[in-house]
Amino acid sequence: MKIESIETIIVDIPLIRPHKLSFVAIDKMSSVIVRIRTDRGVTGLGEATAIGGPSWAAESVETMKAVIDLYLAPALIGTDPRSFATYLQVAHRVRNNEFAKSALEMALHDVAARAQDIPVHALLGGAVRDRIACAWGVATGDAEADIAEAKRLKDAGSYSVFKVKIGRDDPGADVARIGRMCAALGQEAEVRVDVNQAWDLRTARKWVPALDNAGCALIEQPIRATDTRGLVSLQDKCRVPVMADESVMTEHDLLELIRLGGVDALAIKVAKCGGLRPARRMAEMAICAGMSPYGGTMLEGVIGTAASLHLFCAVEQMPLGCELFGPDLAADRITTSGLRMQDGARLLNDGPGLGVEIDEAKLARYRRPETSARTAA
Ligand code: MUC
Ligand code: MG
User: Fold this and answer.
1) What is the band of 370 on the pLDDT scale with cuts at 50, 70, 90?
2) Residue from 20, 65, 163, 165 carrying the catalytic annotation
3) pLDDT score of 377 more than 50
4) Do residues 302 and 333 lie in contact, with contact meaning Cβ atoms separated by under 8 Å?
5) Half-sphere exposure of 184 (CA within 13 A, CB side)
6) What are phi and psi of 318, to 5 degrees?
7) What residues form DSSP beta bridges with 193?
8) Which ligand has the shortest distance to the CA of 243?
9) Which residues have C-beta under 5 Å from ligand 2, the single-atom ion?
10) Considering the entire predicted model, what is its pTM?
11) Which residues have any ligand 1 atom within 6 Å of their CB?
């Protein structure tokens, strides 16, 4: 089997409401969709998103598309998509650009799995669960609206774990509203926070224990990504898990975190790790070092979320669950089917491959103009 073409398409799908992080607010989900076509008629899909352009990480959908179109795709045309060795040779010639690589690597997994008529999780060792507890990301930008949204979702029975984006406001006000949210939601719900690097270490030393006392169940990336030592020191200041996210983009970052003593939890994301295989490896490294891997998101749509789901259902220990809520935050989708939730858990979908198909009319509606396909001459 040979790759005939690798197409990259940027899509922008509106969100059901603006999503406001400490450093940026977004009102659409911007993704690069990768579609691989082969000479045997087997196709594969991949997706990577960026939050606020090159803002959460160094890549944007525009850079991902360029890197794939100009540097990765041309070297793969005509090769066997099932050969991971070929992909690695090509990928190693491009430095960094993990998000771009992850979209391509995802599409290659989809092709390879479809060619064998098996689900992608079977290529990742096989699912050990058929569902995973899923948190909802609360980030309306307004304290009272955040509490109302979480309460509505909890009362509807759809979500019971909430990850609140804080760090835009004064730390004292943020901590007070987390306390109010915990009280409003009661014992059956869990409230976690993601500060997205907004605090300096001195601020975090004061407010991390206060968050813990307010009932917050997990504190993600309170300080800047580069201060790994500071992050480790904060874990000793509270009883609940501190989670590394932006501090650990690569395996080398993870080794450094482990060397410094580690924290309780690590957000694994297919995009930042550079693909399904490195993400799986990092989840296992975390487990070996006594950290809990957590199923993170970059707010992917159905394609990228399905890939993450196949991965997280194949990792043996995922005690903190995941936050694969991206498809529910988007107002629409470009696939013919969605991904199901039941009793606060995201249900693993069937294959073959990722088990999702493009809805061509929707793709045409949400694609940005000026797309290109790299095709064998
Ligand atoms: C992050 O830092 O976890 C993804 C979803 C969300 O709400 O924030 C982002 C990134
Ligand atoms: Mg985060």
Assistant:
1) confident
2) 165
3) no
4) yes
5) 21
6) -135, 60
7) 164, 219
8) 2
9) 194, 220, 245
10) 0.96
11) 21, 51, 56, 137, 139, 165, 194, 196, 245, 296-299
